[in-house]
């Protein structure tokens, strides 16, 4: 495929793969797409290790790194001397204890890889910029910023290194704000997407954003996991697509087996936009976790970001382990960020095969459209 | 455009226009599309008059008629001897009185064109079939059934007359059920659509429905008001598109002026799926009406269909008149069914021009896609 964006970024297909798994990132990049590693899962040291691993496998082909910097954060996160866990109210701790006991999760609290303070502060401008500083020591080809506009220091560092900055948006207003903050590439993400997402559907959002920010190139995200959907997104005016959910059921993905089974079985009605995992609305698999937080009688309601992230991650570490042991209540609670395309995912495939199938189906869809138009 | 569906239905473009205004239906049909009149706005006698008016203007070109037959109805609607208004609880009457007074609507109750019983029962199988019996005396080219599967007597009458039946769906399961009930054409409608709609976005729903019901042809609905969106829908596998919102701001539409102004000013964030107008989730303009019913402290919660329709229509008749008189509270309450594409509608145009612009932009989008694919 020959698009201006492909030439600029040095890829064969304008197919961006967001994943927290280095294996997926390397596989998609090696197949001619553009892998983007979600850095928020890692400490700066871990990120360095992951990127070195990727560097050794992609042979100079381009890949990127994604961070999360919300415009609004719970004030606790900005107080550098505070212990974030001190800000989690007793009611919320009690609710989680009650929930795990109600669902019979017997697995004890798990040791965590990073301190809660370090983990919670990865989503501050300072934390995200720290991750990007590490990434810039590697031959990355893109920095992506989800939620709020990229912090000025991040844009400055990227500019100096000659690396384009992409930013995710859910409204036209956000798109204008991101371009003003220095974004070189906009990812317009519809409500059907997994993870943090707005209310406007991809079909409506993409053309509006394309027209609003032209000539800044736009990628479409949300509802895209096949070549027909890729063709549709590009018919709307996008120069490429940004996919996340479709990689969760690939062979390379480190998705927890219990979650992978739920993803493969789920229909497109089985997702919900919920604040129960991060404190901000994020689409994810409906589960006892989302139901109890969102409509349970005893729910104290989710906290802000990053406090709810800390609450959820600690609980989900236990739930995940218990689900692997086959504890049925834990399987009910287990969930993960995924878009409405989950209804299409019913088979485990290598990531490379997903790329090739999408590109081939894209060509078929375009050929079919062309024949109608004659 | 040459598609199998165009040939079968005798149209130039597979562009279906759902409207309650006969002028829009005739204009789209005369421009080479396929107008579909929403019959639920009329008594059988009125419908006969409207269809005769259309017949005199379209010179034999094809148009259709749409009815609404939900799978589940409030039991009151099925008791032929009951007065439907007797089933509206005191709390709901009081809430409407309180609402109109809170927003300073001084316009008195309005005489209604039809009895509440007749109006409420248009959405029963018997009521809808009565409307279709009238329609079948005209040279219609399509019967469409929204919400539940078409009643067997309606399918039988259509079959005998050789008229195809279309059915709207929001999930794959509904699509299977509609085909089993005898639908010849499926309209897969995404959550971004105006009116009664489900939760799954068009981008995700359409390919799933296309694959599920093949070789039954599928139209895409929801999020489609431009040629790029039409091309996207057809890239997903749809054989055509079904549009409603885009006609509300055409010259021909009889949309109340106060509502038209709100539609032209609205962004794609200004709609909500609410049960406050019909008793079933329907996307519409956010307004004081939807806010008060959906989250007002004193709200008794909406009734089922058709009782909530009666409550809302009577109130909205007063609100509409008061809004025309410039009463500001009435303007706050006024709303109408519309999809997220409302953010694209910022100009009043003749319906014919909308058709030609969509077809022309469709061709441009396909050409652009083809050039990328080479």
From TrEMBL, chains A, B:
Keyword annotations for this protein?
Flavoprotein, FMN, Oxidoreductase
Region ranges (Disordered): 274-300
Instruction: Select a single GO molecular function from the record's annotations and give it.
Output: oxidoreductase activity
Question: EC?
Answer: 1.13.12.-
Which EC class is this protein assigned?
Answer: oxidoreductase
Asked if the keyword Flavoprotein belongs to this entry, the reply reads yes
InterPro entries annotated for this entry? NMO (IPR004136)
Q: What is this protein called?
A: NAD(P)H-dependent flavin oxidoreductase
* Organism expressing this protein natively: Nonomuraea guangzhouensis
């Amino acid at each position: 495929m020959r698009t201006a964006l492909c030439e600029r970024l040095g890829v064969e297909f304008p197919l961006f793969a967001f994943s927290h798994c280095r294996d997926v990132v390397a596989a998609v990049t090696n197949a001619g797409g553009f892998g983007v590693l979600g850095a928020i899962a890692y400490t700066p040291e871990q990120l360095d290790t992951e990127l070195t691993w990727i560097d050794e496998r992609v042979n100079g082909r381009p890949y990127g790194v994604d961070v999360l910097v919300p415009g609004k954060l719970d004030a606790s996160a900005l107080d550098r001397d505070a212990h974030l866990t001190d800000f989690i109210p007793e009611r919320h701790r009690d609710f989680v204890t009650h929930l795990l006991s109600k669902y019979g999760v017997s697995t004890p609290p798990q040791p965590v890889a990073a301190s809660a303070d370090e983990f919670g502060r990865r989503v501050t401008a300072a934390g995200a910029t720290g991750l990007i500083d590490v990434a810039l020591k590697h031959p990355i080809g893109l920095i992506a910023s989800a939620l709020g506009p990229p912090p000025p220091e991040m844009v400055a560092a990227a500019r100096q290194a000659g690396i384009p900055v992409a930013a995710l948006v859910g409204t036209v207003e956000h798109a204008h704000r991101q371009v003003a903050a220095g974004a070189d590439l906009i990812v317009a993400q519809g409500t059907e997407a997994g993870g943090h997402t707005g209310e406007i559907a991809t079909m409506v959002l993409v053309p509006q954003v394309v027209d609003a920010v032209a000539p800044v190139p736009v990628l479409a995200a949300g509802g895209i996991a096949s070549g027909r959907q890729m063709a549709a997104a590009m018919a709307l005016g996008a120069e490429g697509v940004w996919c996340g959910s479709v990689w969760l059921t690939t062979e390379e993905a480190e998705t927890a087996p219990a979650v992978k089974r739920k993803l493969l079985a789920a229909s497109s009605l089985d997702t919900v936009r919920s604040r129960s995992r991060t404190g901000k609305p994020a689409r994810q698999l409906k589960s006892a976790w989302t139901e109890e937080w969102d409509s349970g009688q005893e729910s104290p309601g989710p906290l802000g970001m990053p406090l709810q992230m800390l609450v959820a991650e600690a609980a989900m570490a236990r739930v995940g382990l218990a689900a692997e042991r086959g504890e049925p209540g834990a399987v009910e609670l287990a969930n993960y960020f995924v878009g409405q395309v989950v209804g299409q995912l019913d088979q485990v495939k290598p990531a490379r095969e997903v790329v090739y199938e999408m590109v081939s189906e894209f060509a078929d869809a375009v050929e079919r459209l062309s024949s109608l138009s004659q």
